[in-house]
Amino acid sequence: MDWYVLSFAAINGVLVGAMLGGIALGLSLIFGVLRIVNFAHGSFLMLAMFTAFWLQKLAGLDPYVSIVVAAPLMFALGYAVQAVIIAPLIRRERALVVEPISALLLTAGVYIVIDNLALMAFGPNVRSASSAIETTTLMVGDFPLNTFRIVAAVVALAMAGGLALWLGRTDTGRAIRATAQNRDAAAMSGIDVPRIYNLTFGLGCAMVGVMGCLIAPFIPLTPHVGLSFGIKSFIVVVLGGIGSIAGSLVGGVVIGLFESVASQFVATPTAAIFSLGLFIAILLLRPQGLMGRK
């Protein structure tokens, strides 16, 4: 095997992995604070991609500019889903913690509703958005790299760093961290835990909204595009460590790098199967994930 080909595959794998880590950031935040598996995570990504597509088609906005619309829109939608759909389940069980299977089934229902409403509204046709960026490849040394992937990876890293700073240096961020560590103690100290839940869910959806606009120019868009990204995001979150911001990026890079290099030796679908084997092997050795705590 040519070392140039392997190096090129490894660099592409890192870029794709950083992008996957950025998509998984919101899921990691929601999972770490609410202890809820948001099965509809990919559906919010799909809605953000459709938002970018239709804003370009109807208003001529570049998908990157559409972030200023899609991110607040996804935040509002996520806030509403948590406040209207998930919160009553928590109140009904008379606890601050909902049973994981109940929340999983509930968010799976949200995913089914959103995806099928999108299918009814937009149809099954494959669509694509375009960006004003004219150069689709950027030479880095001897390697021609996809410009859109570079932008998505860089923004994912910046978003992770910004989230870490915000959680550590703002009152709301510290309230979210306190709720994640011990929600009962947080409630007794005066933190409005239900409001923190709503904000966290909305923030997680806003971040996936940003990533949806970033990948819209190079990922084919259909009403079911979010499912595969949602499943892979869950794998990334668990592999990196539940609730760990750095873990999301590390888990994404591990998966992206492994699949990209493995696809040079076997078919791409087979490489994806091998990545699941790697995921299982790592969790057998380190159940809390690569960056998670016991």
Write the layout of secondary structure elements.
Layout: H1 3-34, H2 41-59, H3 67-92, H4 100-122, E1 137-140, E2 143-146, H5 147-169, H6 171-181, H7 183-188, H8 193-215, H9 225-240, H10 245-262, H11 268-285
Antiparallel strand pairs: 1-2
Helix pairs in contact: 1-5, 1-8, 1-9, 1-10, 2-3, 2-4, 2-8, 2-9, 3-4, 3-8, 5-6, 5-8, 6-8, 9-10, 10-11
Strand order in the sheet with the most strands: 1-2
Structural class by sheet pairing and helices? mainly alpha
State the distance separating the first and last CA atoms: 40 Å
Strand content: under 5%
SSE order in H/E notation?
A: HHHHEEHHHHHHH
Show unreliable segments. Answer: none
Number of helices: 11
**What is the typical, i.e. mean, pLDDT?**
88
Cα Rg = 19 Å
| SS elements, strand count | 2
How many strands, which pairing sense, and closed or not: the largest β-sheet? 2 strands, antiparallel
* Overall morphology: globular
Helix content: over 70%
